[in-house]
Amino acid sequence: MASDEHSSNRFPVRDGDPATNFGPVRHAGASETRERVVPATGAEGTEILDLLGDEYTSRILEALSVEPRPARELVSVCDMSRPTVYRRLDRLEDHDLVSTDTTIDEDGHHRKVFATTFERVTVELADDAPTVHLVVREGREEKGASSVPVSAD
Asked: How far apart, in whole angstroms, are the C-alpha atoms of residue 116 and residue 129?
C-alpha cells in the first residue's frame, strides 16, 4: 500500500499481501515492523480497544514506554495491586502488545521483564467497517541504538 503522497521517510511504507491484512512496514531509523489489521467489530478488535481504553492498562503501557520492566516494578511504579498488573499484562501479551524476556538477577532469581511491542494503534473507518491497525515491532532495539535509514526505492 505504498503511495506517492507518503514518499517522505517519516511515513510508513507497507509491503505485504492485502489478502492477509498483514505486511511489514518500514520506517526510517526504526526496526522492521509489521502491520496487523483487525476488524474493530470482531471479538479481537473489541478486546484490544477495551484493553487499550482501560485506565490500568494505560498506566502500565506508559511505564513500559520508558523502559522494559518486571511486573514487580510495575506494581510500585503504577501504584496498583499485583493481581491487577498481572491480569493486564496477560491480556496485553495475549494480543502481542507486550513481550517478555527472562533475566537473571545477581542473586540468581529469574525475572520476567515486559516490554511494549507496538509502535502505534489506529482505528480507521472505511466503507462503514471500522478496523484496528496494529503496527508491531519485529525484533528489539536498545534505547539509544542507531539504525540505518530505509531507502525510498
From this structure: 27
Reported pTM = 0.66
Residue numbers of the domain that contains 91: 4-137
Question: Hey, CA dihedral for 56, 58, 63, 68, is it positive or negative?
Answer: positive
Read off the pLDDT of residues 109-128 as tens digits, 9 standing for 90 and up.
888 999 999 888 888 887 77
Q: Copy the grid coordinates of residue 117.
A: 511491542
126-146, pLDDT tens digit by residue?
777 888 888 877 654 433 222
146 falls within a domain: no
Question: What nine digits make up the cell of 137?
Answer: 515491532
The end-to-end CA distance of the chain, in Å, is 14
The residues, ordered by sequence, that sit 6+ positions from 145 with a Cβ below 8 Å of its Cβ are none
Q: Are 71 and 89 in contact (CB under 8 A)?
A: yes
Q: Is residue 148 part of a domain?
A: no
Residue 128 included in any domain:
yes
**What's 77's domain CATH number?**
1.10.10.10
22 is a domain residue: yes
